Amino acid sequence: MRGWWREICSLVLPTECAGCGRGRTGVCERCADELRAGRVRRVYPVPTPAGLPGVWASAPYADAVRGMLLAHKERGMLPLARPLGGALGRAALAALAGRPDAEWALVPVPSARSAVARRGHDPTRRIALRAAGALRGAGLAARVVPALRQVRPVVDQAGLSGRERAENVANALAVRPRALPAGARVLLVDDVVTTGASLAEAARAVRASGAEPVAAAVVAGPLAAWVGRTRG
């Protein structure tokens, strides 16, 4: 009910741009264009966690893009799922380039149940559904499979170091029974990658189930991947 009410309110009540804070449009064309115009890159968290599959991102986690992601996740600006899902779809297409014949399960990295309850919606799953639609529009067989669940409590990752994040999420995820068949081709999806700890843990859990985490796609990644980067 809370998510439905937020969606209605965000459509009828004007709000300042989530990216730049100007205007009363939710997201202005300039900020939307910044998200659409971002060049997809493969990103490499430093240090790179063991077991992390290749990760593709559409934009750096900075400025207007960061503002839109936080507004969608924490402030419930649900119409932002459209441009953010489009950006995730572009990253997903890059991640799966050259693999047009496989059937793909887009598996979102789950948030803690308490976080979903507090926010009133599941932001990663919401943008994953948009991304899956973009993949199908490009001719790929893709569907969102919420296969992962948390099997022990974790704390909020904000403010933790890379090592602390890895310890926080270690062995915290598992695949739901019968959610993924053995050998299933999986694309992990999330809104942002920083240290890569959550995606690496998700990949571990998928492998443990007998499925294959081929790659990962996110809306945004470390700024260094776009500024003076030397890899990928």
Percent of sequence in beta strands = 15-25%
Number of domains: 1
Q: What's the CATH class, please?
A: Alpha Beta
Distance between the termini: 43 Å
SSE pattern, N- to C-terminal: HHEEHHEHHEEHEEHE
Beta strand count: 8
Question: What can you see in these coordinates?
Answer:
Residues 157-222 form the Phosphoribosyltransferase domain. It comes from Streptomyces mimosae. Belongs to the ComF/GntX family. By secondary structure, the protein is an alpha/beta fold. The protein has one domain (2-225): Rossmann fold (3-Layer(aba) Sandwich), CATH 3.40.50. It is built from eight helices and eight strands; from the N terminus they run ααββααβααββαββαβ. The protein has helices at 2-12, 29-37, 63-74, 81-95, 113-119, 123-137, 162-169, 197-208, and strands spanning 41-43, 54-60, 103-108, 141-144, 148-150, 173-175, 185-192, 212-221. The radius of gyration is 17 Å and the shape is globular. The chain starts with a helix and ends in an 11-residue tail after the last strand. Mean pLDDT is 85; it is low at 1-13.
